[in-house]
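Hey team,

Filing this mostly as a record. A colleague (T.K.) asked me to run one chain through the structure pipeline before their review meeting, and I want the input and output archived in the tracker in case anyone asks later how it was produced. No errors, nothing strange. Just documentation.

Input sequence:
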Amino acid sequence: MPIVFVDVDTQIDFLFPAGALYVPGAERLVPAIARLNRYAAEHAIPLISTTDAHSEDDPEFKSWPPHCVAGTTGQAKACETLLESRATLRFEPGAPITMADQVIVEKQSLDVFTNQNFRSLLDRLQADRYVVYGVATDYCVRCAALGLLATGNPVSVVTDAIAAVNPNDGAAMLREFTSRGGALTNVGDVVR
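Output structure:
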């Protein structure tokens, strides 16, 4: 597999103003993210979509307001970001990996690499490079992008398909990412 798209946390609680942990302006990203995801499906590019899947008493809620509680509307991905063929990779150790056009990787913390099955999925996909987008630039996108860079493969972040909780922190993340060898791109260059 030469390329894998990584759609980070495009869930209702993050994308829309009524969401429990809304990222300012994120609703404007939905058409761009939908376009990227459709492009992946049309060109047989594997799509990994990360999602928070918290329990009602999740320890993360000591630091963050409750959000993305498993099975709630807020935890769902925006329907525009979903592909027809999809499978879910749970976070329990040894969860089976089922391949589909879109593999939804559940996580219970900011970093998708805390899902013990995620590295096995990456090994199975054997990507030469990654294209990352979603929310929030300064938190979960940061963890995904920097973690993927650590695999040794090229990683690009789609700058017009990300949003930050704090714009200054989002800009700092992009500086850190590029200083470590990451590349910046935009939707138009990705979906030519």
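Quick notes for T.K.: The mean pLDDT is 96. The first strand starts at residue 3 and ends at 8.
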